[in-house]
Amino acid sequence: MKNFWTRAASAVVYVVLFLGCIYSGALLGDKTIGGIILAAFLLFVSCGCTFEFFRIVERQGATPCKPLGYFLSFAATAALALIPVMNVGLGFATTMVVYTVFPALFAIVAIVQLWYHSEQPFRDAAYTMLPMLYAAIPLGLMPMLHNSPYNVLVMVLIMVWMNDNAAYMGGSLLGKHKMWERHSPGKTWEGTAIGVVVTLLVSVFVGPLFNSAIAWYHWLMLGFICSVVDTLGDLVESMLKRSVGVKDSGSIMPGHGGFLDRFDSLLVATPLVYVYLLLFVQL
């Protein structure tokens, strides 16, 4: 029971802080300042995720270039999170990142490995860049979802959180068949199915209240993406932790673990939601 109340109190603080940063522009009456506050919060989370990731892979014997990795994560989150504040053309920014910045960055990271005494330099070069791809860029996309014409970030958070809670409660009450015991012994097919159904219902009936400009079938698809990817994102992070024998990625959130534990599903769901909106809803 003590652990339950610890988890609940920690979750309340997390939700209030996150939503407070998202709506800070409206609360302060200044969209620019609000964008900066949200970007600062996400930069803090990005650095925390990068720290936890490096600590995990170092237990495998990897030696990533941590100063460069922190710089890449910080720069990626800042650049994307501040695009809505600076009103930079999204198409131009995306093209620059995909076709020029990423190849150039990997070339730089690979060259830096020449000065590192590593038995597997290309593995370490990949690990140096992975926090940027896995955590920093998805976090940087969140303000763009919030400031898009459809303003779907809060609804994405609701769908992910609803899926988590419904799957947990459904699995606790009805779960009998393990889903992926090797990576997450607690997950069951019954709990996962209940989470998907609840999330789809929430997406169809609550989504239009947030924005009626998005058709119900798009909300249904967004609910499906969030529910399925939520589960898979959690499994991916569990796979990373279990590969080095750790239970939690960190301890910053009592009862929940670290940054990666709390944001694992959002890190995978956010870019997929963004791509769906970009391709099918003309974000």
Descriptive overview:
The protein has 283 residues and is an all-alpha fold. The chain is 76% helix and 3% strand. A hairpin with a 3-residue loop joins strand 1 (178-180) and strand 2 (184-188). The model has no long low-confidence stretch (mean pLDDT 83).
Which helices and strands occur, and which strands form pairs?
Layout: H1 2-22, H2 24-28, H3 31-58, H4 66-81, H5 83-86, H6 90-112, H7 121-146, H8 153-174, E1 178-180, E2 184-188, H9 189-210, H10 216-242, H11 259-280
Antiparallel strand pairs: 1-2
Looking at this protein, list some descriptive labels.
two-stranded antiparallel ribbon; single chain; 11 helices; mainly alpha; 3% strand
Helix content: over 70%
Radius of gyration: 19 Å
How are strands sequenced across the largest beta sheet?
A: 1-2
* Count of runs of 4 or more consecutive helical residues: 11
Low-confidence parts lasting 5 or more residues at pLDDT below 50? none
Strand content: under 5%
Biggest sheet features: 2 strands, antiparallel
Q: Describe the global form.
A: globular
Count of individual beta strands: 2
